[in-house]
Amino acid sequence: MQDVRAYVGPAGGRGVVEDARILSAYTICATVWLLITTAAGLLVSFKYSYPDLFTSPLLSFGRLRAIHTNGTFYGWASIALVGCAMYVAARSGGVTIRSTRLAWAALWAFSLAALVGTVGLDLGMSNGSQEYREWIWPATLLFMAALVLSLIVVVATVSARIGHDIYIANWYTIGGFVFTIILGITAIVPVYQVGLGQVAVQAFYMHNAVGMWFTFLALGITYYALPKLLNRPIYSYALGVLGFWTNLVFYPVIGAHHYEFSPLPWWFQTLAIVFSVGMLVPVWAGSGNFGLTLRGRWSSVRRSYALPFLVVGIAYYFLGSTQGTIEAFRSLQAIWHLTNFTVGHSHATMYGFITFIAWGAIYALVPRATGKEPPPLLVGIHFWLALIGVTVYVAVLSVAGTEQGLTWARGDPFIASVEAASPYWLARAVSGTMMFLAHVVFAYNVYVMTLAPQRASASHAAAGASA
Amino acid sequence: MNRRGMNDVRVLLASAAFVYLCLALAMGVIPGHVLSATPPGPGVRPLSAAEARGREIYVGEGCSYCHTQQVRPLEQDRVWGRPSTRGDYAYATPQLLGTERTGPDLSNIGARQPSTVWHLIHLYQPRALVHASIMPAYPWLFETKDAAAGGDVTVAVPAGYAPAGKVVVATQDAQDLAAYLESLKQAPLPAAMP
């Protein structure tokens, strides 16, 4: 990585400042959506224990749930990761972001998409309740336009690189954009989505939206941020390449494991289960590669405020994805399918993995770009609130889901599953509160790193080098 | 500079796009296309206009986040009806199979709970009928009036669950949604079929 050259090259100082502005703006927008959509999620979690809390159409469970899932996906995580991906494309190539205008246009499109989608959902306008694509079509089209613009920016930036090789981080991010544009088109065309046909497409869509978009972007950014923070090369380039191709080939086949025991063809479900086991290859290749890059450097993790987030993200990538393989087996789906266990799993992955990687990358990249450090104490509070919060969250919902599944298997009256899960739902709301408080602290840290006036202390700038 | 193979960004783009395009066709588009042509099962009929409007309310309020419409071929699902078949979904677009069962499965709710009155009270305030229910109440699908006018569908909400001295009247939306729920009846399968 030759980021020194960016400061002396023809693109020079002005380009570097503009890159910092772009990264900051993406981070700020993403953080706003994080606050809005996790506030919605928090209210939803309390409604499990207090169903008559705020009974109003605009604050109803069915609308806020979709606002929470779509908004955290396409408002928070997408905008945060795309901002980092653009910045990584520039820094890893020793240049500045190419076509900053397109980068700004993409951010407007992302933000407008999130606004239109969220407001539409709150008014009861949903794209057929198809999970993770509930935003109405104008919002979806805006999001797709933003993806195309972002892809152009990243490809143009990577093409302008100084070195010969395309660094592996950019394989993953470019791949993520390409796959998600194809996936988006697949999901929009309605002609092959009638009745059970739509179930098949939804199975494909809902899993690919996670695994071909967030996973690729988060892994790509980790391939840049982790070696950068440790100041040592990635353990194995080849494992990174192996992970790229196996994730690309195995992941698209596993969607039907969301509809086990449904009327989808039985062999189609079996194929999904077999490939779910295959997913251990990219997951262990990726997390193993990161783990081996970290070997013997735990003292660096202790001294850094960004690295602990990446370490948690890598750990949850390993644990959450391995859990995904195990729970795909029919014997276990017979108990866990349709229960809260799934919600626990989705938070282990989308929060423990994706969101922690996004935070690690933001804490790694933004202070270097702006020269403004967040207060270490507040980063620590953010870290522990979020880590304890999500871990308790996943644990209690895993137990709640198991209880639900067991009451059904015992043949108890249905309401027994509601009563069995109730105490865990309250615990989930409490852990959700911790997670939300972590987001408030994070938002303040983002303010300090971006909009706040530069602090005069030179020691902070020096400390940035070791962050 | 000579950039070959995967270090040529065009090759990287094209190979990634080609592989994924093939997989998107094989795992998304083609299964979707084939299964979209599934004919309706025996006795499966399209929805009436009112039922179809009710289904839109069901979608907009996100009912499918807690209620499945799929009976699995498992012992514990017998309580919900017979196992669902492909032909059950010929007229069910958007599909509402669901991925969570926080509330009961509704594949056969029209047969299990055929009373319009029950559905309307339950939509207005679920806890008036099922004490431990955590289903949201949907009072915005109803009007509360001092007195019912001619043609109003009044809902006999148990005392304590509606404003005292008022009459609860079901809007067209509530009636449509109830009509949709009552339409959810599994068509009996011919005896010879598994």
Can you tell me about this structure?
The complex is a heterodimer of chains A (467) and B (194). Chain A is mainly alpha-helical. Chain A is 78% helix and 0% strand. Chain A contains 17 helices and no strands. In chain A, helix 7 packs parallel to helix 10. The two termini of chain A are 17 Å apart. The N terminus and C terminus of chain A are likely disordered. Chain B has 194 residues and is mainly alpha-helical. Chain B is elongated, with a radius of gyration of 23 Å. The mean pLDDT of chain B is 94. At the A-B interface, helix 2, helix 3, helix 5, helix 6 and helix 7 of A face helix 1 of B.
How are the elements arranged and paired?
The complex is a heterodimer of chains A (467) and B (194).
Chain A: H1 3-8, H2 12-49, H3 61-93, H4 100-122, H5 137-159, H6 168-188, H7 196-230, H8 237-250, H9 266-278, H10 280-294, H11 298-303, H12 307-327, H13 330-336, H14 341-370, H15 376-410, H16 415-449, H17 458-464
Chain B: H1 9-36, H2 49-60, H3 109-112, H4 116-124, E1 142-145, E2 154-155, E3 167-170, H5 172-183
Antiparallel strand pairs in B: 1-3, 2-3
Name the chain pair whose interface involves the most residues.
A-B, 81 and 72 residues
Shape of chain B: elongated
Number of helices of chain B: 5
**Residue share in β-strands of chain B:** 5-15%
Overall radius of gyration of chain A = 22 Å
The string of secondary-structure elements of chain B, in order, is HHHHEEEH
Structural class of chain B: mainly alpha
Order of SSEs of chain A? HHHHHHHHHHHHHHHHH
* Tally of individual helices of chain A: 17
List the quaternary state of the chains. Answer: heterodimer
Mean pLDDT of chain A: 94
Shape of chain A: globular
Query: Main sheet of chain A, how many strands, which sense, barrel?
Result: none
Q: What is the arithmetic mean of pLDDT of chain B?
A: 94
Strand runs of chain A, count: 0
